[in-house]
Amino acid sequence: MRKLYLAHNTCLNSSYDLNVLEAGLIQKGYELVSQPEDADEVIYSGCSVREKWVEDAISQINEIARRAPNAEISITGCVANTSMDKVQKGTSATNLSFKAMSQILMDKAELRFSDVDDTHVQDYNVELKSDSSVGLQNLRLRVGEEKASIVASLQEIDRTYQSSSEGRYRRTTKGFVFYNEQDPFERITVTRSCPYKCTFCSIPKGRGEFTSVALSSVLSKAREAVDQGKYHIVLLGDEVGNYRSPDGDADFPTLVENILSLSPKVELSIRYIEPKPFQKYYSNIMSWSADGRIRLLYLSVQSGSHNVLRKMKRGYKLDRLNKQLAHIRSSTSVVLYGNWLIGFPSESEKEFDETVSLVRSLNFHINVVIPFSAREGTPAYAMDEQLSPETIDDRVKRLTEVVAEMKCNDMREALVSVEASVSDDIIKRIRLAERSQYANDQEESEPTRVMGNLIEVKIL
Question: Which of 65, 76, 233, 389 could covalently link to 93 via disulfide, CB atoms 3.0 to 4.6 Å apart?
Answer without folding.
Answer: 65
